[in-house]
């Protein structure tokens, strides 16, 4: 025979003590007077002690009953606190979210946004993986990706955040005159290892490939080289506009514009912490670029 009390037993004693009667306790618990009668008798039989004095005016706890009522109140308080805390966790997401992006996007756009996200969702820890390679969200190399793409992979879901526009930039000391033939300028181009075929093709077609005086393997490297006055280079406008040392040469290059996507795997988008990150950046749609 199991002599241990469960929460139903404690609650029965507590509600009878609060109501002072079986009828009142039954109403609070949504049950009947006979059921409460059977329950309290069963609890007393199990413990071998009388918990209430039965008077015509109602039920009054004995000394043993008062001890059990006090314990029941502690259990109820602990249960309520635990449920509130768990509910709060659901409302305020927490945990690690792996965000894949490029070093250029982090430096030029996303670092301030991550700071704002941290203020809004202090329970979320972002692990930012920087790479120009495409992280595989299917194998959980990342939970969320923010990256340029002509179109997202069909197995991913997401939102277009804006359009990354590109232009030629020079150090302000270079003083490039309007209408200058771009092919006559010293150029900094992408190295073969950078994997930026679209830019290399544009430079070749526009006659700038032959004017390269240096090559680097990252967009931030291109920016640093332009800042040093080595030559001109194509940069994302969000980098060039925010850099006071650089000036735009000519118009934006429509052929090099590309969409910026916020992506995740369908299985992850309903996870609370991932959903919070997606919601934040989704709300910034159109404001980033």
Produce the secondary structure layout.
Blueprint: H1 7-19, H2 22-29, H3 33-47, E1 52-55, E2 58-61, H4 63-91, E3 95-101, H5 103-120, E4 124-130, E5 144-148, E6 157-164, E7 166-171, E8 187-190, H6 197-205, E9 212-216, H7 219-227, E10 233-236, H8 237-241, E11 246-249, E12 258-264, H9 272-283
Parallel strand pairs: 3-4, 3-5, 8-9
Antiparallel strand pairs: 1-2, 5-12, 6-12, 7-10, 7-11
Helix pairs in contact: 1-2, 1-4, 2-3
Which key features would you list for this structure?
D-Maltodextrin-Binding Protein, domain 2; Transcriptional regulator, LysR family; rod-shaped; 289 residues; LysR_subst-bd; transcription regulation; 3 domains; Arc Repressor Mutant, subunit A; transcription; 41% helix; DNA-binding transcription factor activity; alpha/beta; single chain; 22% strand
How would you sum up this structure, described in words?
The protein has helices at 7-19, 22-29, 33-47, 63-91, 103-120, 197-205, 219-227, 237-241, 272-283; strands at 52-55, 58-61, 95-101, 124-130, 144-148, 157-164, 166-171, 187-190, 212-216, 233-236, 246-249, 258-264. With 289 residues, it is an alpha/beta fold. It folds into three domains: 7-91, Arc Repressor Mutant, subunit A (Orthogonal Bundle); 95-155 and 261-283, D-Maltodextrin-Binding Protein, domain 2, CATH 3.40.190; 166-256, D-Maltodextrin-Binding Protein, domain 2 (3-Layer(aba) Sandwich), CATH 3.40.190. The strands form four sheets. Strands 4-3-5-12-6 form a five-stranded mixed beta sheet, with helices on one face. The chain has a three-stranded antiparallel beta sheet with strand order 10-7-11. A two-stranded antiparallel ribbon has the order 1-2. α1 (7-19) crosses α4 and α2 (22-29) packs across α3. The longest helix is centred in the N-terminal third of the chain and has 29 residues, at 63-91. The protein starts with 6 loop residues before the first helix and ends in a 6-residue tail after the last helix. The mean pLDDT is 90. It comes from Salipiger mucosus DSM 16094. One of its GO terms (biological process) is DNA-templated transcription. Residues 5-62 form the HTH lysR-type domain.
């Amino acid at each position: 025979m199991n002599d241990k009390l469960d929460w139903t037993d404690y609650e029965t004693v507590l509600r009878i003590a609060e109501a002072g009667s079986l009828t009142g306790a039954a109403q609070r618990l949504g049950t009947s007077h006979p059921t409460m009668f059977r329950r309290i008798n069963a609890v007393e039989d199990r413990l071998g002690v009388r918990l209430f004095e039965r008077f015509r005016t109602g039920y009054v706890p004995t000394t043993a009953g008062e001890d059990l009522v006090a314990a029941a109140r502690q259990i109820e308080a602990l249960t309520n606190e635990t449920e509130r805390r768990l509910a709060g966790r659901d409302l305020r997401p927490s945990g690690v979210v792996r965000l894949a992006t490029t070093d250029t996007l982090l430096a030029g756009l996303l670092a301030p946004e991550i700071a704002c996200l941290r203020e809004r969702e202090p329970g979320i820890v972002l692990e930012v993986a920087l790479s120009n390679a495409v992280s595989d969200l299917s194998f959980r190399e990342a939970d969320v990706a923010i990256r340029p793409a002509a179109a997202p992979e069909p197995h991913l879901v997401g939102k277009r955040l804006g359009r990354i526009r590109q232009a030629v930039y020079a150090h302000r000391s270079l003083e490039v005159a309007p209408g200058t033939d771009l092919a006559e300028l010293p150029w900094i181009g992408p190295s073969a290892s950078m994997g930026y075929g679209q830019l290399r093709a544009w430079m070749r077609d526009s006659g700038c490939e032959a004017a390269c005086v240096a090559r680097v393997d990252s967009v931030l490297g291109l920016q640093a080289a332009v800042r040093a006055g080595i030559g001109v280079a194509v940069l994302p406008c969000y980098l060039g506009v925010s850099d006071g040392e650089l000036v735009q040469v000519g118009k934006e290059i429509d052929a090099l514009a590309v969409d910026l996507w916020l992506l995740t795997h369908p299985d992850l988008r309903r996870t609370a912490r991932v959903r919070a990150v997606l919601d934040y950046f989704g709300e910034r749609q159109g404001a980033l670029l």
